[in-house]
Design brief:
Blueprint: H1 7-33, E1 43-48, E2 52-55, H2 61-80, H3 95-118, H4 122-125, H5 129-142, H6 144-147, H7 172-181, E3 183-187, H8 191-194, H9 197-210, H10 217-223, H11 228-234, H12 260-269, E4 271-275, H13 284-298
Antiparallel strand pairs: 1-2, 3-4
Main location: membrane
Cofactor: heme c
GO molecular function: electron transfer activity; heme binding; iron ion binding; oxidoreductase activity
């Protein structure tokens, strides 16, 4: 991968760009110096469709000047703006810099609004209609892509409207931390620790039995002893642990799918879920309002 991040590619792009501009200038100059021997009637001798003859007339001067202006413009633009590889340009412009300036301007415009909410407790903020309207817009922009517009999630993305929280108690402090710093949930493949493929299936039925889901009772009985490989994270009773982010296996919430095959796949292949940190995109004041909105989703009353 380092081959694609080395300075070679910067030089390659800069070189190709500069050479292309010079080539355009050269061909423009060469075409002006090249003379075509014309016939007495000022044609080149090329004929199409029987009687369509090519005349030996030069390009109009204004057309030639446009080509020259294009070449000059390209060189000036390349000197002022980043065009030649990673050379910054005399104006110091960058797309990230422009985005940062526009973002700062937008944030300064709404700063008085967020200042009103900053000192409020998230649970009290959840009762403020204006704050919740702002929180809803923040949610739609930054959270709905994964958790859904109705916040009920989908396979692999948690439902935010229930009371099932993997890594914490669902209180505002935990929600704020998760939004700001992100979260990573890992379940390693456990098939080798469980035993044979048959043992894995027996364990899957035991896991189904913990939540009262339909299962094969004989297989579940045989798989009970194999649950010891899971107890370190999910607990001996299967109710999960916030400290490890391990889900409760005794309820009816299935983040990665329900049924024997889904559980077997989880045991054999594991999971690696990542929620990215949002503190690079949102200010602390925005996260404060969004925290109250997300908390209210699972505490509507």
């Amino acid at each position: 991968m380092s081959d694609f991040t080395s300075d070679f590619w910067h030089l390659y792009v800069a070189g190709i760009t500069f050479i292309s501009i010079l080539a355009c200038a050269f061909f423009l100059w060469a075409s002006g110096k090249t003379k075509v021997v014309a016939a007495a009637d000022n044609t080149t001798g090329h004929v199409w469709d029987g009687d369509l003859r090519e005349m030996n007339n030069p390009l109009p001067r204004w057309w030639v000047y446009l080509f020259i202006i294009t070449v000059v413009f390209a060189l000036v633009y390349g000197a002022m703006y980043p065009m030649f590889g990673k050379v910054q340009g005399q104006l110091g412009w960058s797309s990230h810099g422009q985005w940062a300036a526009e973002r700062a301007k937008a944030l300064s415009a709404v700063e008085p609004l967020y200042a009103k909410f900053q000192g409020m407790d998230p649970k009290d903020l959840a009762k403020d209609q204006q704050a919740m309207a702002v929180g809803e817009r923040l949610y739609m922009n930054y959270c709905a892509q994964c958790h859904g517009s109705d916040a009920r999630g989908s396979k692999g993305f948690p439902n935010l409207t229930d009371a099932d929280w993997l890594g914490g108690d669902g209180q505002p402090a935990y929600i704020h931390q998760t939004i700001a710093q992100g979260r990573q949930g890992i379940m390693p493949p456990m098939a080798a620790a469980v035993g044979t493929a048959e043992d894995v299936r027996n364990l899957a039925h035991y896991v189904l039995s913990l939540s009262g889901s339909p299962h094969d009772s004989v297989r579940a009985t045989q798989g009970a002893a194999k649950f010891a490989a899971c107890a370190a994270c999910h607990g001996a009773d299967g109710k999960g642990m916030h400290a490890t982010g391990a889900p409760n296996l005794t309820d009816q919430v299935w983040l990665h799918g329900w049924g024997e095959e889904a559980i077997v796949r989880a045991i054999e292949k594991g999971f690696n879920n990542v929620m990215p940190a949002q503190n690079a995109l949102l200010t602390d004041a925005q996260i404060h309002v969004l925290t109250a909105y997300v908390w209210k989703l699972s505490n509507p009353n």
